[in-house]
Design goal:
Structural class: alpha+beta
Strand content: 5-15%
Distance between the termini: 89 Å
Largest sheet: 4 strands, antiparallel
Strand order of the largest sheet: 1-2-4-3
Number of strands: 8
Helix content: 40-55%
Number of domains: 3
Shape: elongated
Length: 358
């Protein structure tokens, strides 16, 4: 074992090695990028300085028992520092179950959008305008984080600059390990690509193999210094729509994904085929309310149920006042089912179209 103190810092000897043209070009590009980012860093002032720095540090690591495999598992410090506040340890089977219902939903406001914006700001600082090499290096840095976890098998990014200085094209492939987690990550990647200014042209997705391939196209937003928030959000929505469009929803065997969307439209209401079906569902609701709800809130929760069916519109929860929606108001039979059922638990009064429970 040779201590570093016995190694001279003065570079006088030469070492000639044979490498492939591709590897030589890769080293040259890497050194140029790092030197451009920090011109005062002596480690990248020349290719020779980089070789010397890399070999010396590799030998020190090897003498400590480390291997090249260990290096491939090391996470980039800047990447680690960024993700740390947003990261927590989760049980994958539990996350799989929770995220299943979110499969075709867009990202909600709040913490998720805050993370997307923070991630966007972090990424923009990592590459110079026009530098595809910076983008390749950035991808490898991000990939190192994922390689430390058990949520992916492989990531691959291929960038093809246009020979006539037009928009570059690219391919991003991601092989995951779990159904819902893989789908959520794919949605997020599509969203973040949109924020950066990269358009997703097409998506090939194989649920059985957890495989996703995105065809990419550079837009003028990618290297623009302008925030152009509206344009980036528009591109984000277009990208994510590859994963949450109605073609995907209707192609899914589970009908509840479509029903979840229908339920968000107040112009749509649930209609029961017969009174027996109506009674069956109300009995289920009633039993749970009696078991888990305090007595004072029982009627309020019944009104909440009918409002979610879009049968009524609650005017005042405190006064238990509501209006009957027009489709039910004009349907004498179902309106009578509603009034008769509520009358089981309260006195129902009506004044100028406003109903009250007492």
């Amino acid at each position: 074992m040779t201590s570093k103190k016995y190694l001279s810092d003065k570079k006088t000897s030469q070492l000639t090695i044979s490498i492939s043209p591709a590897l030589k070009d890769w080293v040259k590009r890497y050194v140029n990028v790092k030197s451009g980012n920090n011109p005062k860093d002596d480690r990248f002032k020349s290719i020779s300085a980089f070789y010397s720095y890399a070999i010396e540090n590799l030998l020190e690591l090897f003498e400590k028992g480390k291997t090249l495999d260990d290096l491939s598992r090391v996470e980039d410090k800047d990447v680690k520092d960024f993700f740390e506040p947003f990261t927590f340890r989760a049980t994958i089977p539990l996350f799989e179950m929770v995220s299943e219902s979110n499969r075709y939903n867009h990202f909600t406001l709040g913490f998720t959008s805050h993370f997307i914006l923070a991630y966007f700001n972090f990424l923009r600082k990592q590459f110079k305008p026009g530098s595809y090499d910076d983008l390749r290096i950035l991808f490898e840095r991000l990939k190192s984080r994922v390689s430390l976890s058990n949520i992916s098998k492989d990531w691959r990014l291929e960038i093809t600059p246009d020979e006539k200085k037009g928009p570059a094209r690219g391919v991003l492939e991601f092989i995951g390990t779990h159904t819902n987690l893989h789908y959520e990550i794919c949605k997020f990647m599509a969203a973040e690509l949109g924020m950066l200014g990269i358009r997703v042209l097409d998506v090939i997705y194989s649920p059985d193999e957890y495989f996703c391939r995105m065809e990419l196209l550079e837009t003028d937003l990618l290297f623009s210094e302008d925030l152009a928030k509206k344009k980036r959000l528009k591109l984000l929505n277009e990208n994510v729509n590859h994963f949450i469009n109605y073609s995907k929803v209707l192609n899914d065997d589970r009908d509840e994904y479509l029903w979840m969307r229908l339920a968000q439209d107040n112009q749509i209401f649930i209609n029961f085929q017969d009174k027996q079906t109506f009674n069956k569902w109300l009995t289920l609701i009633e039993k749970d309310l009696q078991k888990f709800e305090i007595h004072e809130d029982f009627n309020k929760k019944l009104l909440n149920f009918f409002e979610k069916l879009h049968w009524i519109k609650i005017v005042s929860e405190h006064n238990l006042a509501f209006q009957v929606e027009q489709p039910i108001e004009s349907d004498d039979e179902q309106k009578q089912w509603l009034i008769d059922y509520l009358s089981k638990f309260s006195e129902v009064s009506q004044n100028d179209g406003i109903y009250n429970l007492k």
